[in-house]
Amino acid sequence: MTMMTLVDASREALRREMARNHDVFVLGEDVRQGGIFGQYRGLAQDFGPSRIIDTPIAEATMVGAAVGAAMMGCRPIVETRFSDFALSAMDEIVNQAAKTRYMFGGQGRIPLIVRMPCGLRQGSAAQHSQSLEAWFIHIPGLVVTAPASPADAAGLLLSALRGEDPVMQMEAKELWQVKGEVGSLDAPVPFGSARLLRRGHDATLVVWSAAVPAGVEAAAMLAKSGLSLDVLDLRTLWPWDKDRVLNSVARTGRLIVAHESVRDGGFGAEICATVAEELHETLRAPVRRVASPRIPVGYALPLENLCRVTPAQIASVVAAACEAEVDIDAKASAGPAAEMAQHRL
User: Fold this and answer.
1) Which residue, 205, 145, 126, 131, is CA-closest to 173?
2) Residue 338 has pLDDT above 50, yes or no
3) For residue 3, what is the enclosing H or E element?
4) Closest CA relative to residue 206, chosen from 167, 242, 156, 251
């Protein structure tokens, strides 16, 4: 096992795969300079300008070129810099990448990856801070991933690079510098497989991306008051590990879903609806959600923090679902994500 940051693990996994498979290449803004978060640092020196390709500020052109290259057998990675900017390429993603396999009877495959740094990061404001995973989950033909650990960031990237479908990889900006153990940089993580972070019996907490560290911290807080949680990191949002979530909730009787993206119309609603439909008679409490309010993300830190999902918020909702008296430490209300935000990348 090696301790690595999330950004380092994903970069080194990509480096190895590019050395192994010459059909893999990267295109996007500033990628030859290493990317604004360091995702591609050193790759231009290793693989040259024909495989690490700087582009103009033209997301539709990037994704359109990648779709064509993928149809001809390449495995392109498009770097959007921020998930917000991918909206300029929605036709290419939704009508081209997602539909080609279906429209041509499986003859045309689009093995491309669109990397979308997403979510809050200190002072990034309304047009650089959105978590838009629900938009892409809604589109048949797309795989949507949301890694929260270095090992998963590397493993999901490898699965995407070795698969045959377009993958939208949502990468939380405030998790780039999170460290964790990585066993192998050559081990793909299968799509549709959730990761059990803690095991308990009072409730099931489902999280992904930036909500993962907040959920783990909330579970640790609640454990001091005698409540134990199953904490599940989905890792991939489509396909999602419905069986594991249902099995967990069937045992605990309670479901809480936490995510950083906006609550209204968020993917948490789909999970809650599925559990309510499948397990209505066995639930011991109503399903609940913890998520960002439906407001633009403010530039000022106090306004940005209104959109943060904190350990204290999660713990409070879990306690209410369990009808338990819990002593919640106010100091934890900022959560690990806020602490990470203080460290400029």
Assistant:
1) 131
2) no
3) strand 2-5
4) 242
Residue 187 lies in a domain: no
Tell me the catalytic residues.
Answer: 128
CA 112 to chain centre: 17
Q: Which is it for strands 2-5 and 24-28: parallel, antiparallel or unpaired? A: unpaired
User: Cβ-count burial of 231 within 10 angstroms (0-12 exposed, 13-18 middle, 19+ buried)?
Assistant: buried
The CATH number covering residue 297 comes to 3.40.50.920
Mean pLDDT across the chain: 92
Classify the C-alpha dihedral 35-158-83-213 as positive or negative.
negative
182, 203, 218 - which closes a domain: 182
330 is written with which tokens?
Answer: 């106010």
Alpha-carbon span 179 to 131, nearest angstrom: 22
**Domain range spanning residue 8?**
2-182
Q: 110 and 173, same structural domain?
A: yes
The pLDDT of residue 325 is: 67
d(CA 139, CA 128): 22
Neighbours of 42 (CB within 10 A): 13
